[in-house]
């Protein structure tokens, strides 16, 4: 492989950033397990196609974010000491790995491939996927892309929560079952709130750069200290749908999801102490991701437990 091909290969995977696909993998797996538990439905072929389609949309969204944030100047304003694994974009353009044009090509190709998969699923398996897929495409494109730039206008948080919570879970569940139910909605709200909190705490290292680049997300609007109130509120409200699941299913097994409470307490404590000390804040960033992952896992375990208890 020549140097240019190696550069493109490295740049593609840096833009794709598979480690963050956990954001969509968790709701997809949770919805698939719910489909099996509540409806006895599971089709591996359609699950894999759904997985690939959503991953392609994620890659396309990342590529748009790369060139949109670069062109707005946001990525250029991120100070070296504020660059973290949790924030600051994929850094393919600022590090000279890919060009703006190359990221645009990646976005176009991955969105086109995702569209083909989505159309196939909607015509061959579940018609509702056409509308859910269109909503997913719209949010992914409008998140960073001018003139919409939702994440620059204080709409990024709700976009992420909606896309990686209710939208992904509804689509995945319907592909498997051709139906929908309240348990899926409640679990998706919990995951949506938690992934929003992942985004929220990850905005702290980029706070100054976002403010300079005109990225008026809600953390920039509120300020770092007031932003802690939102961080805590998102954690607290994420448990409400879990409690509701207990009553909807008449089963206490969902209480297993509350094992995250000690981690939540620690994450909040760290954030309160070090919200303006980025290296020390990283513990809170990591724990917020862990809480999201563990909640997804416990929702899956609890769902299986309803079969036996």
TrEMBL record:
Q: State the compartments where it is located.
A: Membrane
- Regions crossing the membrane: 20-38, 44-60, 105-123, 129-146, 158-176, 182-201, 253-271, 291-308
Q: Does the keyword Ribonucleoprotein apply?
A: no
| 4Fe-4S among keywords | no
What pathway does this protein act in? Quinol/quinone metabolism; menaquinone biosynthesis
Superkingdom in the source lineage: Bacteria
Membrane association type: Multi-pass membrane protein
Q: Which UniProt keywords apply?
A: Membrane, Menaquinone biosynthesis, Transferase, Transmembrane, Transmembrane helix
Q: Which InterPro entries match?
A: UbiA_prenyltransferase (IPR000537), UbiA_sf (IPR044878), UBIAD1 (IPR026046)
Which PANTHER family does the UniProt entry name for this protein? 1,4-DIHYDROXY-2-NAPHTHOATE OCTAPRENYLTRANSFERASE, UBIA PRENYLTRANSFERASE DOMAIN-CONTAINING PROTEIN 1
This chain belongs to which protein, by name? Answer: UbiA prenyltransferase
**Provenance organism:** Mahella australiensis (strain DSM 15567 / CIP 107919 / 50-1 BON)
